[in-house]
Amino acid sequence: MAAAQQLSHVYPLGSRLNDSGRLEVGGCDTMELAREFGTPAFIVAEDDIRARARAFIAAFAARTDDFEVVFASKAFPCTAVYRLLFEEGIGCDVASGGELALALAGGVDPACIHFHGNAKHRDELAFAIAAGVGDVIVDNMRDLVLLEDLVPEGRRQRIFLRIAPGVSPETHPAISTGGPNTKFGFDLSHAPAAIERAQASDAVDVGGLHFHIGSQIMDIAPFRTALEALTGLGDFPAYNLGGGLGVAYRAHDDPPSIEDYVAAKVDAVDEIIGPGRRVIDEPGRALVANSCVTLYEVQSVKRNVDTYVAVDGGMSDNLRPMLYDARYDAQVADRFGGGTRCHVVGKHCESGDILVRDADLDDPRAGDIIVTPATGAYGHAMANTYNGALRPPVVFVKDGDARVVVRRETHEDLMARDV
Ligand code: LLP
User: What residue ranges define each of the domains in the chain, with the CATH number in brackets?
Assistant: First the structure.
């Protein structure tokens, strides 16, 4: 019986199957949401993001007085998300002038913004300095040269130096960023000269060191190894250990808890560097991934050698299966269960446009609403208009109320830049 099914932890906190066996998120019936807002649509449970934000802060506060949780906003760059997290006391990192503009529009205090990038344009850096960002994460020598040129006389910009510790966690190679041959940061052999140069500069204050070794990390041991690699570079008042905590995409995924991840990082700084250092963390995915489900409508069901359930979205709203072989769960929103082995495929003109391979759905048919959970991180962020797709709306749900925070794209939007 559908209503007797338990929802797995990949769904937003507070989700349930209601008495009619329909998925409810944030107190809203997803069938009603699909009718009201159309499909595809990103449905985000506000309370889920708030709960994870509070869990991060509580986990830090239980271990240290001196910490900062920073949202890696590339995971979900939308003003409503910046605003919500800032209300919870969480600033952000931005990796471009565009993300900086979104963060400012979302009301984030510039002092709580950390400006990143491995290829910062002079104009972006000038924008960041003029906006008054809290710190700039220096990735390479040219960043220092530009800062010396751009920081006004008499002012000093706080910086962190991004170091590549030469450590590769177990994750997809495309999202492993701290190994021995990476495009990010100073490698260990070049770091001492960069630190010396920065410390001698009148334009900057060195706040500390930064590393980010990768994303969707399920084994937290490498954070410690990475920190150990930095010990020869000196002693700094603050360490930014990046983000990376993995999340559950499928029911059987078992990522480390926020508490264990935070404890591992804080304890590592305490034990390897010493007590009294400020610890900064930049979670992206772990704050937002599981807050969101995507709703699609089935357009056709084709029985070939395999069964293909084609929906009205695809690689335009979720690139992750194509880029990283990412696996997701899927269900019919009002008939949870299984029985039909199939592939949930997108509407795009590529055979690789498969959202969920080997899904197990209850007799899927045209017109059904399909739900894929855990799409809050890097879904909206990497959405695109391939094949003239109209990027989906983002709908916040809470206590039975739904509000659109990003509207669906229109045909006019597709032509808005044409001159
Ligand atoms: N800090 C820095 C400097 C980063 O580059 C990133 C992610 C993060 C923090 C946040 O990492 P997280 O906590 O989300 O793992 N598009 C890929 C993920 C790319 C991550 C890029 N950097 C995906 O969909 O899996």
Answer: 2-45+289-415 (2.40.37.10), 116-283 (3.20.20.10)
